[in-house]
Design goal:
The complex is a heterodimer.
Chain A lengths: L7 H12 L15 E5 L5 E6 L2 E12 L10 E8 L14 H16 L9 E3 L3 E13 L4 H15 L1 E2 L2 E4 L2 E4 L8 E2 L7 E8 L4 E4 L3 H6 L2 E7 L5 E7 L9
Parallel strand pairs in A: 4-6
Antiparallel strand pairs in A: 1-2, 2-3, 3-6, 5-6, 7-10, 8-9, 11-12, 11-13, 13-14
Helix pairs in contact in A: 2-3
Chain B lengths: L7 E10 L2 E5 L6 E4 L19 E8 L7 E3 L11 E3 L4 E4 L2 H8 L4 H7 L4 E5 L4 E6 L2 H13 L5 H14 L2
Parallel strand pairs in B: 3-5
Antiparallel strand pairs in B: 1-2, 1-4, 2-3, 4-5, 4-6, 7-9, 8-9
The chains are: A alpha+beta, B alpha+beta.
Chain lengths: 246, 169
């Protein structure tokens, strides 16, 4: 199903309002919407509300054989689903460009930044490692899915506990949560992505665009950072050129 | 929203194909609007409608078996407030109940709004409202007010309006 088209007068009004530094819901240029994080009953289940945007992340794990190139490391698998619940424009078939883009960005932000210690996920080198799977589902789209998804993913990973394992020689026993307490994952740092939307060829900039602002924007810049002031990933889309000062 | 004959709605023009415009009004399919259905339009004198414009029109055919049709003139051939509009101003989506409350003959919601500040409102029965006020800030206040007073009772709403009047942002 297609989304409602954006009328010309809405586009003009939004651009005019941005020129006067006014946003639709009364925020300032650098203001974020209210963020609410709730955890579910299972370990690793997390809901994030960013204004009206709502996403859910769920982390699960299983024991698998590791990749041949990296026998000592565990595997991390990320999956972001744009469900039709989020917006009538999203369809069930996962081909859409946006879904691919968000998936790539989430993977780069969390996997390449090495925020999780994958070597600690190894149980028997070369034979059994933990595969951690993070599934992010979008429940409502009101703009800025990427930030909400990254917050949800990293919160769910922090909340998750994996079962304890015991190794006797060659045999591996996985203890259930009743026998031994599950262990949290070892997380080095928490990368969070921040989105900047650009309008009028880079003259105006807004943080955390809502859905209407996203439709009108020229370009988007997503920067993932952690609290030690390190940049984990940068992605710019929309084809605008930025000067260094911006 | 389910269209009904005789209701006026705000639609967004999505395509121009031949003599007909395709208009999205928020329902399950798009309605068609003929270019001759405007006041003073003839085959030579076409109306100035572009893709993406807002139109205020009424349904002349709206049943579950056929594609809905819109016109911008009433029975006697006069525009009566319908047609293309919306040079500056904001389009918002509200619930159908709020729209009906606004359009009711003696609605106190409308009386409260009139006392706030001068503004132009186009109300479509498909839940879309177009607002324009003197400045961008006032338009934004009005839009947010309308969206939030949907779920408020009358005293709460009057309290909110009074606060706005005193604040006079």
């Amino acid at each position: 199903m297609k989304d409602t088209p954006l009328s010309n007068c809405e586009r003009d009004f939004l651009l005019k309002a941005i020129e006067e530094k006014k946003r639709l819901d009364g925020r300032q240029t650098y203001d974020y919407r209210k963020i609410k994080i709730t955890f579910g009953t299972d370990y690793g289940c997390c809901f994030v509300d960013l204004g009206q945007t709502r996403v859910m992340a769920q982390v699960s794990c299983e024991l698998v054989a590791p990749k041949e190139s990296r026998p000592n490391e565990g595997i991390m698998f990320f999956n972001l689903e744009l469900s039709p619940m989020a917006s009538p424009a999203f369809e069930q078939g996962r081909q859409s460009e946006l879904s691919v883009k968000l998936n790539r960005q989430l993977e780069r932000c969390l996997r390449n930044s090495k925020c999780i210690d994958t070597e600690s996920l190894c149980v028997v080198s070369g034979e059994k490692v933990w595969q951690i799977r993070v599934d992010v589902h979008t429940l409502n789209n009101d703009g800025n899915l990427m930030d909400a998804a990254s917050i949800a993913a990293i919160s769910a990973l922090c909340h998750f506990r994996r079962p304890d394992v015991g190794i006797q020689g060659e045999s591996v026993t996985v203890y259930s949560p009743e026998e031994r307490d599950p262990i949290p994952l070892s997380i080095y740092h928490m990368p969070i992505s921040v989105s900047f939307a650009f309008f009028q060829q880079g003259t105006y900039l807004l943080v955390d665009p809502c859905e209407r602002e996203e439709r009108v924007m020229d370009g988007l810049l997503m920067i993932a950072m952690n609290k030690h002031r390190e940049i984990c990933s940068i992605q710019s889309s929309g084809g605008i050129m930025l000067l260094k000062e911006q | 929203y389910v269209p009904a004959k005789g209701e006026t709605v705000i639609g967004i023009v999505t395509a121009k194909s031949g003599d007909v415009f395709k208009v999205d009004y928020g329902g399950s399919e798009q309605a068609s609007l003929s270019y001759l259905a405007f006041e003073g339009a003839t085959k030579r004198n076409r109306p100035n409608v572009q893709v993406g414009d807002l139109v205020f029109a009424q349904f002349v055919v709206a049943n579950k078996d056929m594609e809905p049709e819109l016109v911008c003139i009433d029975g006697s051939g006069r525009a009566n407030g319908m047609g293309v509009f919306g040079a500056a101003g904001l389009l918002i989506k509200v619930s159908l109940g709020l729209v009906r409350r606004l359009l009711a003959p003696h609605s106190d919601l409308r009386a409260d709004l009139e006392q706030l500040f001068p503004c132009e409102l186009v109300v479509g029965m498909n839940g879309r409202i177009w607002v324009r006020a003197a400045s961008v800030q006032q338009t934004l206040i009005l839009a947010n007010l309308l969206q939030s007073c949907d779920t408020m009772t009358a005293p709460q709403r009057q309290q909110l309006f009074r606060r706005i009047q005193l604040g006079a942002l």
